[in-house]
Design goal:
This protein is mostly beta strands. It contains 5 helices and 49 strands. It has 2 domains: 336 residues, 6 Propeller (Neuraminidase), CATH 2.120.10.30; 304 residues, TolB, C-terminal domain (Neuraminidase, 6 Propeller). It is globular and about 75 Å long. The relative contact order is 0.14. The structure holds 2-acetamido-2-deoxy-beta-D-glucopyranose (NAG) (12 copies). Pfam families: PD40. Keywords: Signal.
Length: 669
């Protein structure tokens, strides 16, 4: 294993003669001849925009609607010109399909309807907020949907299709909830008589993490969701909770044909995390349950057993259909024994026609990845939004380094600020530290590249991250910008032993004078509250001495461009991370965010402000129904260095993160 040789570098002074160093890793990197994602043409120079705003999005690469017979035969595309659509539903008269589309820009959810034969496509509502989950009323005159037009929070709205008049029903005096807690409303469903709308909500629940409780709370910061089932009249009166179960998520309510019972899926709160992670979906499960609408009592288990059963729906008085995700039984099932095996394609959010004979769903692909530089919807019109892979960082010499996580194997690449000259800098799979399956799962890789101020070096962590960092190693590495030489800067082991001194180091960043690297450490004893293996450290590149800057649960540190302050993320209580700054000597701590949700992963912008990801607006959709993500509802916010002037830069139902502004001046070079 290369590790032993690499560790031998520890303590050696850095010398300009590094190229002669016998331990130098010759990675034998080949410059990729065919770049899978050539730079797309830019409009910024002529459009009057200030430059490019890069960000990452965790969402399927493609999503197209199909209609099929209930047994899966006669499948055909719903739309003649699909762009990116999902979350479809039949109208109660079976004539229409309502759906969500991103036809006005990648990431901007709007609602539409179309006849079941694909004609008469009509935009129902299209704003820069999220519109999603549209369902037509039984009399065909109204549509209920989810919108984030009330301050970025998911609420239920109703629109009159004739007049276009629209109103929210869940942000009123009668539905008032504790604003510091989650307060989202999802998946509306009309009662057969049109008198009620049922939906799920996490209102007044908590900002819960996941995993076994350990020192300072849970082991996973990503939030789980505790939903209950509610009903309201379309005019906003008679708001009522129908059923809830402490520690459980009750989601996606649907009515029985006679309107007397409400059907939903029930899973533990913890399983809302497991249900959207590929490494744990097979061990997750849910139960399909119904209750009496009038009393909320008479709980009846409709479908039990293993597997994640979601999207339940009555397709007759006595038959229930649902979708099973993962666990080797993926597909459309009915309680009459029907099974349409969909494991050969990723089908999601099926909805059945009122007569139970047809089903509409989206087919999504994660293999088709957004190309680097794909244009996204621009919530800030001054900037052209574009897609980037993760951890992008701009050097003082106008080069970008990033981790190719979605586009590759979590290796480090560099490219010119204008998107040309992509170059492989470090191949994590060739490093021998990592196994390919953890990399494929997204929990290991070469993460968070940081440029030296002169643009000659790139430093990053190679190791196991997220939940796998609890037991897996992490090494600081730096390479020359051309990737011909790399060295390992800290010790670790593949497996962290309990009670051992071996730690996981990662998320490095150069000091503005290039002499030090700041990074975060983690050891198994951290779980027990031993702060000696926790916090931020400074590595002096001349002496190779490591000094302690903090002993808190801190991560993602980086020096401001002027070297005055360090921005970082701190776990301030069991379930809550905030964005903080301190002086470069560790003094003068300032906590810049205050939401009960996670505010994290802050980076400096080119003009010395701070951009970060926030969960403060809560979920925009039911947590268990997502795939592949970590914190599905992350939105990007930018603020001044003192935490003032916070401005929201995204409003999508997807996990948006990794912001990087590249102003025109840096593109033209
Ligand atoms: C689709 O259905 C509508 C309503 O039934 C009908 O008017 C229209 O001609 C159909 N279009 C096609 C292409 O079949
Ligand atoms: C939501 O509805 C309530 C009650 O009608 C109203 O007071 C509030 O202003 C509405 N919010 C928005 C954003 O329309
Ligand atoms: C709202 O929730 C916060 C956080 O749990 C709690 O501190 C506060 O007391 C609650 N406020 C009300 C009015 O219940
Ligand atoms: C809302 O609708 C219900 C049922 O139709 C009706 O009884 C009630 O008066 C309405 N409320 C308002 C404020 O219009
Ligand atoms: C479902 O998951 C829960 C929580 O993980 C577990 O306790 C239970 O045994 C599982 N049930 C089945 C049938 O797999
Ligand atoms: C989950 O189960 C499916 C089908 O049995 C299998 O192909 C897949 O590898 C499993 N995933 C994991 C992480 O074990
Ligand atoms: C579904 O189909 C796949 C391959 O097409 C097969 O491997 C799998 O066993 C099938 N699942 C079930 C539950 O029959
Ligand atoms: C990722 O690794 C696989 C297996 O080693 C290789 O075939 C593929 O080309 C790599 N992809 C990229 C983008 O480097
Ligand atoms: C992109 O920037 C590089 C310098 O990094 C320059 O050589 C190249 O000409 C630029 N290409 C375009 C298309 O602007
Ligand atoms: C790589 O970069 C180093 C440091 O800048 C330089 O000395 C070396 O010549 C470069 N190697 C190649 C092959 O360009
Ligand atoms: C250290 O390891 C021993 C033996 O495995 C174990 O009994 C003990 O609880 C551990 N100490 C801590 C603090 O985890
Ligand atoms: C980890 O904790 C155990 C038990 O408290 C202790 O014996 C051991 O020295 C600790 N390891 C380190 C590296 O601090």
């Amino acid at each position: 294993m290369r590790l032993s040789a690499s560790v031998a570098l520890l303590g050696l002074a850095v010398s300009p003669a590094w190229a002669l160093c016998p331990y130098a890793e010759k990675m034998a990197l080949e410059k990729k001849s065919s770049i899978p994602h050539p730079p797309a043409p830019r409009e910024v120079s002529s459009s009057g925009k200030k430059g490019i705003f890069y960000m990452n999005r965790i969402a399927p690469g493609t999503s197209e609607l199909y209609v099929a017979n209930v047994d899966g035969t006669n499948e055909r595309p719903l739309l003649s010109n699909p762009i990116y659509e999902y979350h479809a539903a039949f109208s109660p008269d079976g004539q229409w399909v309502t759906f969500t589309g991103e036809r006005n820009g990648d990431g901007n959810s709007d609602i539409y309807r179309v006849r079941t034969n694909g004609s008469d496509l009509e935009e129902l509502e299209a704003t820069s907020s999220i519109e999603d989950g549209a369902v037509m009323s039984p009399n065909g005159k109204q549509v209920a949907y989810v919108s984030t037009a009330n301050g970025y929070k998911a609420n239920i709205w109703v629109m009159d299709l004739e007049t276009g008049h629209k109103w929210n029903v869940t942000d009123t005096v009668s539905t008032a909830a504790n604003a510091s807690l989650p307060n989202g409303y999802f998946r509306p469903s009309w009662s057969p008589d049109g008198q009620w709308i049922a939906f799920s909500s996490d209102r007044n629940s908590g900002w819960y993490g996941h995993g076994d409780p350990v020192f300072m709370g849970v082991s996973g910061w990503e939030h789980t969701q505790e939903l209950s089932i509610y009903v309201i009249r379309p005019n906003g009166s008679d708001f009522r909770r129908v059923v809830s179960k402490s520690g459980y998520c009750l989601g996606s309510p649907k009515w029985s044909p006679n309107g007397k019972r409400i059907l939903y899926y029930e899973m533990t709160r913890e399983n809302t995390w497991n249900s959207h992670r590929p490494e744990s979906i097979n061990t997750s499960n849910s139960t399909l349950v119904s209750v009496d609408f009038a009393s909320g009592a008479g709980r009846r288990v409709e479908v039990a057993g293993s597997g994640v059963k979601i999207f339940p729906q009555y397709i007759s008085d006595s038959t229930i259909a649902w979708f099973a995700k993962g666990s080797g039984k993926e597909g459309l099932h009915t309680s009459a024994g029907g099974f349409f095996n969909t494991s050969s394609s990723t089908i999601r959010s099926p909805a059945w026609s009122p007569d139970g004979k047809q089903v509409v769903y989206e087919k999504t692909s994660w293999d088709v990845v957004r190309p680097m530089d794909k244009k996204l919807y621009s919530w800030d019109e001054d900037w052209e939004y574009r897609f980037t892979d993760v951890f992008p960082q701009l050097s003082n010499t106008n080069k970008i380094a990033m981790t190719e996580k979605q586009l590759g194997n979590s290796s480090i690449v560099s490219l010119s600020a204008n998107g040309t000259n992509e170059h492989l800098v470090y191949d994590d799979l060739k490093s021998d530290f990592l196994d390919a399956s953890s990399v494929a799962m997204g929990t290991a890789g070469a993460f968070n590249p940081g440029w030296s101020p002169d643009g000659k070096w790139v430093t990053f962590g190679v190791g196991f991250w997220f939940q796998s960092r609890a037991t897996g190693g992490g090494w600081l590495v730096r390479t020359t910008a051309n990737g011909t030489y790399s060295e390992v800067l800290t010790e670790s082991e593949t497996t962290l032993e309990s009670n051992s001194s071996v730690i996981n180091s990662g998320f490095p960043s150069y000091s503005h004078d290039g002499k030090k690297i700041i990074f975060r450490v983690w050891g198994t004893n951290s779980t027990l509250g031993d702060r000696s293996q926790l916090g931020l450290r400074l590595l002096d590149l001349d002496t190779r001495k490591i000094s302690v800057l903090t002993n808190e649960w801190d991560n993602l540190p980086s020096f401001s461009p002027d070297g005055e302050r360090i921005v970082f993320t701190r776990k301030v209580s069991d379930y809550n991370y905030d964005v903080c700054t301190m002086r470069s000597d560790g003094s003068d701590l300032k906590v810049l965010t205050s939401s009960g949700a996670n505010d994290a992963h802050a980076v400096w912008t080119w003009d010395g402000r701070i951009a970060y990801s926030s969960g403060m607006f809560g979920f925009q959709y039911e947590c268990a129904l997502y795939d592949q993500t970590f914190q599905p509802y992350g939105q990007v916010i930018v603020m001044d260095v003192d935490g003032s002037n916070k401005r929201v830069l995204t409003d999508s139902i997807w996990e948006d993160s990794m912001p990087m502004f590249v102003p025109n001046s840096k593109l033209r070079r």
